[in-house]
Amino acid sequence: MWIQEPDIVWRFVDADLIDGAYSAALFHSIGRHVGSGNSDETILFWRVKRPTLYLGYHQFVEDEVHEAYCQEHNIDIVRRILGGGCGYCDLDQVLFSVIGTQDGLMPGNVQAAYNKVLSGMLLALVALGLEGELDPARNGVFVQGRKISGNAQGRFDGAVMVNGSFLLYFDFDTMDHVLKHPTMNLRPNVKTARDGMVTLSDLIELPSIAAIKQALCMGFEEALDIGTYGGTISDEEEKLAVDLTRQYASVEWTYRMDHKRAKRKKSIVNISQS
To answer: What are phi and psi of 229, to 5 degrees?
Structure first.
């Protein structure tokens, strides 16, 4: 039986276990290289070595995070280049970044890009024997009314990037302690993260990590109508990622919005007193 090969082939990279700050630097670096045409469009998978709270680009640490709890329990706070809300991530999630060019397959409309990429999540769930649904208002994938994947999007340097998580297991108690608003972007009237979220292990006997990643990658391939090849991070991407890691791990970057707000407040006070 003759099977037509896909006309478009993207790179697939599985970074496996990496640090939170490095992961943010890595998908930022890949985005720059993809957007400039120096790297192939890419599907990136990873998991965090230790618990990490990803903060949306425009968010304030003070408003969103219980900082003392994070410090006491060695939970990293990483401000990402993408917008959206907070996401608490640990080892028991597969994290992904689907990175295309602005003049390529990724739709120009923000919601259309979410719909296209996250339909790959729905296809992965079908392959695992489940049925999910997209919730455009919350940019997430839900199963039986509870969120199994949270997502964020960004457009910069010629790239379009949709990131997300796939919950295998989850430490709901820690999330409730880390975030000041743990039920944000869940369904209405949900009182705890446990009530509003669901993991793959809640729904089925958990397959191997390799099988889950395969289902997810194949879902994205079908949704985007592409093939993939197993690739690696280029030397140029790695060099930039290492350089950017210093930024993403810095206090200045993590608290940049908080510092800007404090400076504005101080300026207003000075003006009112003059």
So the answer is: -125, 150
